[in-house]
Amino acid sequence: MPSLKSQPSNNDSDDESEEGLARKEELDGEKKNPTQGDTVTDESGTDISEDTPEETEDENLSELHASDTSESHSEIDTEISPQSKEDAEEFWPESSFKEREVKETPIDEPVSFEYTPPDFPEGLEEPPDINDEYEIDSDELDTEDYGIKSVPIRYTDETVESESEDEESEAYLGGTAGLYYLRGLLCHQRMNLDDAIRYLGKSLELAVEMDLFDYVVKSQIQLAAICLKRYRIHGNKKDYYSSLHYSENLIQIAKELELDELWTEALLLRAILRKIAKDVHGARDDLNQARAMAKSTGQASVEALIEHELQEVRRLVARAKRKKQPDEDNGDSMMDEALEAIPAIFDESLKLEVSRESLEISVELSRLVIMNLASGLPLYTYSFDGYIDKKSDLVYGFLSALSHLASEIIESPGMIRSISHEGSTVMMEHRGAYMAALFASREDFRARQSVQKFLKEFLRIYPEMRFGEVISEEHRLAANELLVRIFKDYL
After folding, report:
1. Which of 199, 281, 377, 399 could join 184 in a cystine, given CB atoms 3.0 to 4.6 angstroms apart?
2. Are 336 and 370 within one domain?
3. 434-440 and 418-421 beta bridge pairing
4. What global pTM score does this model have?
5. CA–CA distance, 133 with 154 (Å, rounded to integer)
């Protein structure tokens, strides 16, 4: 098929084209390689034949580069604002554009460090690795008696930390007991008797828990004096019986620890309290017993104070026989003098007993009962020996009769604190409309303090219930946990 494009057909056109190309190549060669002596001029007629084309091109490029650089700097200086510079530096800090010198350090061969443990002397074992696990040897531990299987034990730093934390907690509680005691003394001096009783009560509770004998004695001495002072101010018999309660605690402690000196001083304290409350016959009996014990133990200073108190009691008895009441002002001054002398009485015993070692608990507990005095029904019962006989109803009736004995038959605001019968004792504590009774083998101060604490905490978790309602399982479990925590030394 013939092509649509036109193609030259004559030979003349071919010749002309070949001549034109040859002429053009000739002219280009002359421009690129001018001969020596020829003159080369530019458009304006200037002679530029002396400069070589390479030098001219380099100069033009350098001038063009310089002009462009100066123009660009001038444009940047005039167009960029200070705020723009700050923004630019925020995103592209100047330090990032600076050249950093990279120093080549020679790479040496790696050095290997080997640790050789020291040789342990004979007879000492190498300590175990912290991350290793060890199992209890069944031959060394009788697992059948304890129901323990061989379990992995991981050695960590927590064991050491727990021991240090226990020591710190004991020191903290001991310091807290002393702090509460000092606060109680300060409130007593300021005649803030309610706060003084509250702080001294906390000090006594911590002292019993931590076995701080000096604060156990000193706190109860101050509590006895404060309760008696409240009785003199308000005339409430309950305050007087509270003061006797603390003095009897000291007598009980002296009996348990077989401390004749403390026993003598505690009897003297109770005699002073009874004398101030005008119970002259009870005071005379305590003073006679204390004088006999002071002579046997050789306490000359205490014996002299007992003789002074006996003279005061004889004077009061003589006035009572003549039906003359003692002067109130004289009684107040007598109370102040006696109470100021009470702490000094126990100084010698406290110095001897500060370093006393803890005694083993020999009392045996059998049952704890919490009762409502109004209804006579038990709210909570726990058996320490795991045995509850069928005569529980008789026990509850017996306790209910005892609670009504003091209020209705004897007509006294005081409460029966204990009843003993042939090697068995019932210790009772009262709080409001409730009573706690602990059956034990003998009277024990620590056990009594535990009953007081349990009754106080039990009433916090125990809700108010109507007659006939039974404590729920949830509250019973909470009471069991509370009992285990408070009576842990007896379980």
Report:
1. 199
2. no
3. unpaired
4. 0.52
5. 5
Is the same domain home to 318 and 221?
A: yes
Nearest to 263 by CA among 353, 197, 201: 353
How far from chain centre, in Å, is Cα 436? 31
CATH number at residue 398: 3.30.450.70
Residue type at position 422: E
Q: CA separation (Å) from 293 to 46, 63, 262?
A: 145, 126, 10
Could you give the C-alpha distances from 256 to 220, 262, 361, in angstroms and in order?
17, 11, 10
Non-local (6+) Cβ contacts of 225 within 8 A are 188, 243, 339, 342
Q: Which of 250, 188, 176 is nearest to 213 (CA)?
A: 250
Residue 425 sits in the same domain as residue 282: no
Q: What domain count does the chain have?
A: 2
Cα Rg of the chain (Å, integer): 53
What is the C-alpha separation between 299 and 265, in angstroms, rounded? 10
Please tell me the predicted confidence (pLDDT) of residue 298: 87
What pLDDT was estimated at residue 8? 47
Distance CA 266, CA 105 (A): 87
Judge whether 464 lies within some domain: yes
Ranges of residues in the chain with a pLDDT under 70 are 1-174, 323-361, 386-391, 406-414, 464-470
- Please give the Cα distance from 393 to 398 (Å, whole number): 9
